[in-house]
């Protein structure tokens, strides 16, 4: 357990109330009990402040008047909540061990304090750094390099010669370095184009479940430092994802596209190949990007859901836009 004073020091906040109050865990305003600390980061949940049973609430200064009990005042309650959740729920220490069912090439170099799970397969000339945890059933092919503090979940596949930095988190089902979709049409028949590159992944990257990152055709696919990828994302061959970019689930990025640093890409976005996306771009969910984006800012496309009858009416109007545009041009010309 942690006192509110200790937690406040951890998040650089100020305690209002009993700074000796002991906290066991975090919970929402609706479900919290006296042993919990909660938080208010979205104003639509303000209505729960009066009824919450939380022993303390992380809150901003402008909302402090709405709470009568213990509080920790911070600049950004959501960031503070994330820090507190990590403090109260630390990653369990891993025991240095290698399961008897693991198959490891004698030509590979595995840190002595690594934890290698059951049925892991590690090929020739693999390097795995200190404090690594490799989950059951994971396959790491020849020539792969993985830095320190790796947390790799079960049933991950890392293909040949992939390079991964420090502090990686990889969730179940991820495939890194599989062949890109390289094909060419030879007189009506599709033939395979060999994919000869690999994948480079920086430090402090997290990759969500069942995400796939293809190897490059000639040069490498590159994922920068601090990138966070959600579940079921497809990153095609020769893509470059800049540092600290965040990508939500079910995004598909076609080949040879470069996405800048500090971008935010919403769920379900589709991005065509051979494009350049500038630094600091935000793309809202379900947007289709078919041209390069050269300036930072927020970009959207798509039609939000409506009643079916209204949607049909709107489609008719969209189809009339071409004729309407021609009529406007004629009017402007005085015809």
Topology overview:
Elements (H helix, E strand, L loop, with lengths): L1 E2 H8 L2 E3 L5 E2 L1 E2 L9 E4 L16 E4 L11 E3 L3 H12 L8 E2 L4 E2 L4 E2 L4 E2 L4 E2 L4 E2 L4 E2 L4 E2 L4 E2 L4 E2 L4 E2 L4 E2 L4 E2 L4 E4 L4 E4 L2 E4 L6 E3 L4 E2 L4 E3 L6 E3 L4 E2 L4 E2 L4 E2 L4 E2 L4 E2 L4 E2 L4 E2 L4 E2 L4 E2 L3 E3 L4 E2 L7 E3 L8 H12 L1 H13 L2
Parallel strand pairs: 4-5, 5-6, 6-7, 8-11, 9-12, 10-13, 11-14, 12-15, 13-16, 14-17, 15-18, 16-19, 17-20, 18-21, 19-24, 20-25, 21-26, 24-27, 25-28, 26-29, 27-30, 28-31, 29-32, 30-33, 31-34, 32-35, 33-36, 34-37, 35-38, 37-39
Antiparallel strand pairs: 1-3, 2-7, 22-23
Describe this structure in words.
The chain has three domains: 2-88, MurE/MurF, N-terminal domain (Udp-n-acetylmuramoylalanyl-d-glutamate--2,6- Diaminopimelate Ligase, Chain: A, domain 1, 3-Layer(aba) Sandwich); 97-299, Hexapeptide repeat proteins (UDP N-Acetylglucosamine Acyltransferase, domain 1), CATH 2.160.10; 309-335. It is 13% helix and 28% strand. It contains four helices and 39 strands. It is flat and about 80 Å long. The mean pLDDT is 96.
Q: What is the count of distinct domains?
A: 3
Given the helix and strand composition, which structural class is it? alpha/beta
**Total number of helices:** 4
- CATH architecture of the largest domain, by name, is 3 Solenoid
In CATH terms, what is the fold-level topology of the largest domain?
UDP N-Acetylglucosamine Acyltransferase, domain 1
Order of adjacent strands in the largest pleated sheet = 8-11-14-17-20-25-28-31-34-37-39
Per CATH, the superfamily of the largest domain is: Hexapeptide repeat proteins
Helix content: 10-25%
Fraction in beta strands: 25-35%
Provide the residue-averaged pLDDT. 96
How would a crystallographer describe the biggest sheet? 11 strands, parallel
Q: Tell me the distance between the termini.
A: 80 Å
Q: Poorly predicted ranges (pLDDT <50, ≥5 residues)? A: none
What is the global morphology?
flat
**Count of β-strands:** 39
**Quaternary state, please?**
single chain
The CATH class designation of the largest domain is Mainly Beta
Q: Round the Cα radius of gyration to an integer and report it.
A: 25 Å
